[in-house]
Design brief:
With 92 residues, the chain is mainly alpha-helical. The chain has five helices and no strands.
Length: 92
Protein backbone atom coordinates (compact mmCIF):
# COMPACT_ATOMS: atom_id res chain seq x y z
CA UNK A 1 0.00 0.00 0.00
CA UNK A 2 1.47 3.37 -1.00
CA UNK A 3 1.07 6.44 1.24
CA UNK A 4 -1.58 7.82 -1.17
CA UNK A 5 -3.60 4.62 -0.75
CA UNK A 6 -3.52 4.68 3.05
CA UNK A 7 -7.12 4.78 4.22
CA UNK A 8 -7.92 7.37 6.87
CA UNK A 9 -11.18 7.04 8.77
CA UNK A 10 -12.55 10.56 9.32
CA UNK A 11 -13.29 11.34 12.94
CA UNK A 12 -11.80 12.68 16.14
CA UNK A 13 -8.63 10.59 15.89
CA UNK A 14 -7.85 11.80 12.36
CA UNK A 15 -8.68 15.40 13.28
CA UNK A 16 -6.32 15.24 16.28
CA UNK A 17 -3.57 13.74 14.09
CA UNK A 18 -3.96 16.54 11.53
CA UNK A 19 -4.01 19.29 14.15
CA UNK A 20 -0.97 17.77 15.86
CA UNK A 21 0.90 17.54 12.58
CA UNK A 22 0.28 21.20 11.77
CA UNK A 23 1.47 22.15 15.28
CA UNK A 24 4.57 19.97 15.01
CA UNK A 25 5.55 21.92 11.91
CA UNK A 26 5.07 25.29 13.64
CA UNK A 27 1.66 26.03 12.13
CA UNK A 28 -1.90 25.51 13.11
CA UNK A 29 -5.10 24.11 11.67
CA UNK A 30 -6.77 27.50 12.02
CA UNK A 31 -3.90 29.26 10.24
CA UNK A 32 -4.10 26.76 7.38
CA UNK A 33 -7.83 27.45 7.10
CA UNK A 34 -7.28 31.21 7.06
CA UNK A 35 -4.48 31.01 4.48
CA UNK A 36 -6.63 28.81 2.24
CA UNK A 37 -9.90 30.74 2.56
CA UNK A 38 -11.66 27.86 4.30
CA UNK A 39 -13.73 28.35 7.43
CA UNK A 40 -12.50 26.20 10.33
CA UNK A 41 -15.96 24.66 10.67
CA UNK A 42 -15.94 23.57 7.01
CA UNK A 43 -12.47 22.04 7.43
CA UNK A 44 -13.51 20.33 10.68
CA UNK A 45 -16.57 18.88 8.94
CA UNK A 46 -14.22 17.33 6.39
CA UNK A 47 -11.83 15.90 8.99
CA UNK A 48 -14.68 14.51 11.10
CA UNK A 49 -16.38 13.00 8.04
CA UNK A 50 -19.49 15.14 8.20
CA UNK A 51 -18.81 16.28 4.61
CA UNK A 52 -18.46 12.98 2.76
CA UNK A 53 -19.37 14.21 -0.71
CA UNK A 54 -16.81 14.84 -3.46
CA UNK A 55 -16.03 18.37 -2.20
CA UNK A 56 -15.60 17.21 1.40
CA UNK A 57 -13.36 14.30 0.40
CA UNK A 58 -11.31 16.59 -1.86
CA UNK A 59 -10.92 19.11 0.97
CA UNK A 60 -9.87 16.36 3.39
CA UNK A 61 -7.25 15.15 0.90
CA UNK A 62 -5.95 18.69 0.49
CA UNK A 63 -5.73 19.21 4.25
CA UNK A 64 -3.88 15.92 4.72
CA UNK A 65 -1.50 16.69 1.84
CA UNK A 66 -0.74 20.18 3.15
CA UNK A 67 -0.20 18.91 6.70
CA UNK A 68 2.12 16.23 5.33
CA UNK A 69 0.52 12.94 4.36
CA UNK A 70 3.33 10.78 5.76
CA UNK A 71 3.37 12.67 9.06
CA UNK A 72 -0.43 12.50 9.35
CA UNK A 73 -0.32 8.78 8.56
CA UNK A 74 2.22 8.14 11.34
CA UNK A 75 0.37 10.30 13.87
CA UNK A 76 -2.95 8.69 12.93
CA UNK A 77 -1.52 5.17 13.25
CA UNK A 78 0.00 6.01 16.66
CA UNK A 79 -3.31 7.39 17.90
CA UNK A 80 -5.20 4.35 16.62
CA UNK A 81 -2.73 2.06 18.42
CA UNK A 82 -3.06 4.06 21.65
CA UNK A 83 -6.85 3.92 21.42
CA UNK A 84 -6.85 0.17 20.75
CA UNK A 85 -4.53 -0.35 23.70
CA UNK A 86 -6.82 1.70 25.94
CA UNK A 87 -9.83 -0.29 24.80
CA UNK A 88 -8.05 -3.55 25.65
CA UNK A 89 -7.35 -2.21 29.14
CA UNK A 90 -10.95 -1.05 29.45
CA UNK A 91 -9.97 2.60 29.71
CA UNK A 92 -11.80 3.91 26.63
Amino acid sequence: MTPKEFDFQPGAILHDAIVGTFRAHGGSFERWCQENGITPSTARNATFGQSRGPKGRALLGRIIDDAGRDFVRRAYAARIEAYASAVKRGAA
